[in-house]
Design brief:
The chain is an alpha+beta fold. It has one domain: Roll (Thiol Ester Dehydrase, Chain A). The chain is built from four helices and six strands; from the N terminus they run ααββαββαββ. A six-stranded antiparallel sheet has the order 1-2-4-5-6-3. Strand 1 and strand 2 form a beta hairpin. The longest helix is centred in the middle third of the chain and has 17 residues.
Length: 170
Amino acid sequence: MKNAAFLSRILSRAKESNKTGKLNWILWKVIPFNKPHGIKILSLEEDSVTTYIPYKKKNFNHLKGIHACAICTAGEFAAGMLLISHLPIDKYRLIMSELKTEYHLQGRSALTAVSRFAEGVTIDKLKKQLDSEDKVLTDMVTELSDSKNELIATVTTTWQLKNWEKVTLK
């Protein structure tokens, strides 16, 4: 939990100042899976998170487009960052329970992923639900666009949220 509290403080500071350089470096350390992809947070806003996935060889498929799994990862990462920027990970456990991706075009340049809360979902509603329910499921929608601002993919992630006090490990 010590690392979770530290990450929560760094996220809070990055959101306040909208400076993400140090945050990206820390995230590459604590989520090493994402480092080779070069996924970076560009901005942390109150209602959205914008991330970036570069057009580079490690992210290519066999047709030199951005690989489907890299697109999914960027979408999941943006949604998760939006959630943990509002729900401290030292208080709440977040687990992705479902991932659905709709591909519209091939990604032939760097991509930007913007994640927002689904319509009707607010952080206040989620917190109230978490106070009264053992677990809460919420959908997050992330749209990935290329350098021409063309929609490449829409990633929908379903997250299971739970207060750590209600978590039982078997």
